[in-house]
Amino acid sequence: MDSETEVILQAINDTAEDIWKEFDADESGFLEREEFKNFCLKMSDALNLKKITEEVIDEMIIKFEGESGDKKISKDEMKRYLKDLYGIKDETE
Ligand SMILES: [Ca+2]
């Protein structure tokens, strides 16, 4: 792993921690649907994306954890998604 990748991985870990601090309101360790929705709404505001609908939330959840998921987002699922965004291969899988 090169040092640039390490820096990005560190940033991803920090980002996930920050997201959890802000959005895991019941401190369950997961973003349940309502918490995940709040996260998506904030992101869409920040990024000026199209309006987030209930359907978009469902699509996002499937994007994060696949069809057979438990409908709540774990920190690992968030990190995997962020790694995907940055084009980093997950070497632990
Ligand atoms: Ca939670």
From TrEMBL:
Protein name: EF-hand domain-containing protein
Coiled coil location: none
Residue span(s) of domain EF-hand: 11-46
Keyword terms of this UniProt record: Calcium
A GO term, aspect molecular function: calcium ion binding
Record-linked Gene3D superfamilies: EF-hand
Record InterPro entries: EF-hand-dom_pair (IPR011992), EF_Hand_1_Ca_BS (IPR018247), EF_hand_dom (IPR002048)
Organism of provenance: Euplotes crassus
Pfam families, per the entry: EF-hand_7 (PF13499)
